[in-house]
Amino acid sequence: MPYYLIGAEPSAFGAGDLNNPQPYGLTSSEQTLLENKKKLHKVVVKSNNQANEVESLRQRIDGLQTIIESISASSRENKLKLKELDKQNRDELESSSEYEKRILKSIEETNELIVVNKLDIEKVNLSLVEMSKLIDTINSTYVTKNEFNTLVNNVNNFKDLVAKELKSNAKPKKSKLDSMSNGDVATKAKNYYDKKLYTEALEYYKHLIKKNYKPARSHYMAGEINYNRKNYAKAIAYFKESAKLYSKASYMPILLLHTAISMDKTGDKENAKTFYNAVISKYPDSSQAIEAKSKLDLIK
Predict the structure, then answer these.
(1) How many CB atoms within 10 Å of residue 251?
(2) What is the pLDDT of residues 281-297, one digit of tens each?
(3) Are the CB atoms for 260 and 229 separated by under 8 Å?
(4) Model pTM greater than 0.85?
């Protein structure tokens, strides 16, 4: 067979095969079909590529959605946290405001206490001033313990004397002296006094006082007996009654001097001064006046 026939044989068997990678011997229709097939292939490839891209995008979208959901959850948590923080801030603000109110109230109460304390201090200062004045007064009129005890004893004795006299006046008792004359009783009383038998002498002089026999002298002698016994309050009472009954008696210098001394002894210094000066002014040349001056100097 001729050579060209051998060379052309393969082409003759594959002519018009559209599935051949390199088709040949195509008609115009087949050529058009091949072109369309190629275009379709390209469309399929492109569609597959787009499908892959869409799937990739879908996966990316799913990832983004997961992220968005996570962000949304975080956002909700953050909102809750912000809400809680806002509540805490409000509570703290209210607490701070309440604390500030308490501080202001405490300051007001403290200021009120300061004012009250200031008033109390002023009252205390006034009390101290009054106490100081009282202490000064006490110091100026201070009486020693011995003088006070003497005064108390004399006052008690004087009370006893008054009580006994009232009792004796209320219920007069019969006495052995009632059978004696007043002159004899006076003589007997003087004898007892001179012998310093003061108890007996005082009984007789009291009898004469009751009988109203020479009452001025009887009171004077009863005062002298109590003076010698250092019963100064009783002595003063008798001397006072005697002077009231008869102020011009010869024994008046002694009566006034002994009255002054009795007052001096009982702590009545001011009245003692008055009686000392009375002795000095009324009986300047008497021995009693000399003694009164020496006693008066001791008081000054």
Answers:
(1) 16
(2) 999 999 999 999 999 99
(3) no
(4) no
